[in-house]
Amino acid sequence: MFRPLELFVGLRYTRAKRRNHFISFISLTSILGIALGITALITVLSVMNGFETELRERILGMASHATISGSAEGLDDWESVAQQAREHQRVLGAAPYVTAQVMLSSGEEVSGTLLRGVLPETEPEVSEAVKKMLVGKLTDLKPKRYGIILGKELAFAMGVRTGDKITVVTPQASVTPAGILPRLKRFTVVGLFEVGMYEYDRNLAFVHIADAAKLMRLEDRVTGVRLKLDDLFQAPRVVREIARDLGGRLYISDWTRQHANFFRAIQTEKRVMFIILLLIVAVAAFNIVSTLVMVVTDKQGDIAILRTLGMTPRSVMTIFIVQGALIGLIGTVLGVVGGVALALNVETIVPAIESLFGIQFLSPDVYYISDLPSELHWDDVVRIGSVAFVLSLIATLYPAWRAARTQPAQALRYE
Asked: For the chain, how long is the longest CA-to-CA vector?
């Protein structure tokens, strides 16, 4: 049974001035090692959380939380489908779209791209395209004017700018007296956008939905309807509910299916990074073994006297567990405080370091995300602190067990 005596003696051994100053040095090293490991782990995971959120916002800023699509021939009566979807309490907006893989041609430059036909009046309900425009506006897309908005990287690759003509070639063919020819149409570049994701800036172009439908011979049909939800993490459940309301006659998908591999890779990377950095904490925590082994050796006489006074081996073991746990607790608290403080101020500290030394960690010429975003999750902090403290407790078991096995007669023989 645990008694206050063990706690008192354990704390006294921790505070007492030791004859061997090397023991105190190793104790301090253990505390600092645990603290630095926890600080690094909390900071790195917070930065990775920030990158994940930033990427998700950029991807979903141009993609959609959920989509409703019909057969290969297209979706009829999209207005009623959109209206039914809007009736769900979690749906914030719905907009029709037409999508197709096409080839763009300008002079000698040729590039494949994803052509998306949008309705400028409703598109802001489901995407951030309006906010990502560099030149022009989304409303510059007019029906039968055949205007096109290109991503910044795509325009650069094609060597075009606003006002230039570009040819859109579809995979569908037209039968003419001269034979089977690909269908093509000249469009005028009316705007440029930049999302900050190469996938979209290089491989996406917008046209008016009426022009896209005519180009793809959909007549009054569309490819589908895109939805925006109030909580993107509820997308799988909302999609199932909407599918049930629509009677299962349409195909409904959500962002977790469309980008599952990408976000799964990020989660895997976070787990691996957690394990790797946790090894730093483990190494520091097991330095406690060295500290307590030397303390046990240094206190052989004291342990023998306590045993002759009636203290049980379990009580002796508890004394050294208390001492090791205190070292682990101090290191854990310092690490958590340091990690939380650093994670909350990464976006301020990093620019200050860059300015001070005249360097840039993430050059905007190479990386689309040139700042280090940080997002602290308290569940990560609790998990890291708990694991570090448990490792510290495990590290105390062997030295404490050795202390409990001390034989009073042998220990006092040369005293």
From this structure: 114
Instruction: Tell me how far CA of residue 374 lies from CA of 53, 58, 162, 382, in angstroms.
Output: 9, 16, 37, 17
Quickly state the pLDDT bin for 104 (edges 50, 70, 90): very high
Amino acid at 32: L
What is the distance between the alpha carbons of residues 51 and 262, in angstroms, rounded to a whole number? 13
Distance (Å, rounded) from C-alpha 124 to C-alpha 136? 15
Q: Is 415 or 89 the better-scoring residue by pLDDT?
A: 89
Query: Does the pTM exceed 0.90?
Result: no
Half-sphere exposure of residue 73: CA atoms within 13 angstroms, side-chain side: 4
- Domain residue ranges of the chain, discontinuous segments joined by +: 4-57+263-411, 64-257
Specify which residues 71 forms β-bridges with.
Answer: 74
Residue 271: phi and psi, rounded to 5, are -65, -45
d(Cα 63, Cα 250) in Å, to the nearest integer? 19
Q: What is the mean pLDDT of residues 311-337?
A: 82
Q: Are strands 251-254 and 179-193 parallel, antiparallel or unpaired?
A: unpaired
**Are residues 270 and 48 in contact, defined by beta-carbon separation less than 8 angstroms?**
yes
Looking from the CA of 355 toward its CB, the CA atoms found within 13 Å total 6
pLDDT bin (cut points 50, 70, 90) of residue 2 is very low
Strands 251-254 and 66-69: antiparallel
pLDDT of res. 206: 93
At which residue do the structure tokens 């409303």 appear? Answer: 139
**In degrees, to the nearest 5, what angle opens at C-alpha 260 toward C-alphas 259 and 265?**
105
User: Are the beta carbons of 103 and 111 closer than 8 angstroms?
Assistant: yes
Give the number of other CB atoms < 10 A from CB of residue 78: 23
What are 359's two structure tokens?
């360097």
Output 265 or 14, whichever has higher pLDDT. 265
**DSSP SS3 for 266:** helix
